[in-house]
Specification:
Shape: elongated
Number of helices: 4
Structural class: mainly alpha
Strand content: 5-15%
Order of helices and strands: EEHHHH
Length: about 120
Amino acid sequence: MSGEDYNIYDERPRKEPQRGQEPPEQKDRHPVASKVFAVLSFVFTGFGLIVALTSGGASVVPGFLAIISGLTAYALGARKLGIAAVVVAAVVMIFGVVASQGFIPGIEASDHAYPQDVEQQTGQ
């Protein structure tokens, strides 16, 4: 039985994929939808990067949406694009958190910016 295997629920022989070939169930199932979700993930990632660079705030929502879109692209069959989208989105989210803490030169820390009249309101 080299190259063929019997499924216990089905009596028909099943061919195993050869080395270097993708199994038939892992091919691009929805080629257009998977690539649309991958591109959408990169759009959300770009928006998260722009927010991190301009306002210095850690906006988690674009990164979260980018990761969900990348995972959806991966599940629909765009394996390499989906993995790349998730990795890039995670890196941009970490960059946003680092920028919000003031560790990036030229970007003010957004979590330590207090209004000027805080001392007046507290009486100190």
